[in-house]
């Protein structure tokens, strides 16, 4: 995998960004694709079969984005809730499209068994810019905390709050891409005035478990299902993936709540974050989307069998 050693083009080495640097960064973020045509239109086509609701709106300058959620039509208070989130990092395309594919192709299989709450694109501004942050150079997936600095994160937490303690399983759909190493991690280091330290990109699919409440059998059930669709990332020579020890095949652990990660927002006993690798010559965009949908199905099936 390629890495970058040149200084990031914005800011001064070892000095955190101020308003000038953030404004320069924002000026370099052109709109590259359409949330309306690629996400909202697909969501609308699901309305005849599911309850589609707007749970908030992001207003950034002259641009405004409705935040949409999809619910089971047969919602019943006596059923467990399953939460599926995608697009917390807007550039991670299969997280968004995989969530929508799951709803279209598989959600009906769980009617009457669980209440599904699906948020396919948490960060629509970043989806259009193919970027990790929101326009304030804030990472929504480090912002799921009290007094969140990211409205994307705060809006999702408000949506989930009424069912937070009823969630059986939460799966948060992500990707790890080659641009993590060439753009996003260097930008993070520059923003915070720190040196960039290359960590490498895992070659394949992996999962992030909660180190505070690990569920190894649950994680392996998802890995087993997904490996029928795409390859699982092997550990590097240090026995790690992106600098974290591999605790089981294709699985690392993070302290989800401590890091303010999306998968920490409920008290669900079963939580996982998927990481698809779309830049492999061994995968296609369609396979990546299918891997995400497959992971969702496997996660729900395990949670229902072990609730």
UniProtKB/TrEMBL annotation:
SUPFAM superfamilies: Zn-dependent exopeptidases. One of its GO terms (molecular function) is zinc ion binding. One of its GO terms (biological process) is proteolysis. Residues 31-307 form the Peptidase M14 domain. PROSITE patterns: PEPTIDASE_M14. Pfam families: AstE_AspA_cat. InterPro entries: AstE_AspA_cat, Peptidase_M14. It comes from the Bacteria. The keyword Ribosomal protein does not apply. Keywords: Hydrolase, Metal-binding, Zinc. Its cofactor is Zn(2+). Belongs to the peptidase M14 family. This is Peptidase. The lineage of its organism: Bacteria, Pseudomonadati, Pseudomonadota, Gammaproteobacteria, Pseudomonadales.
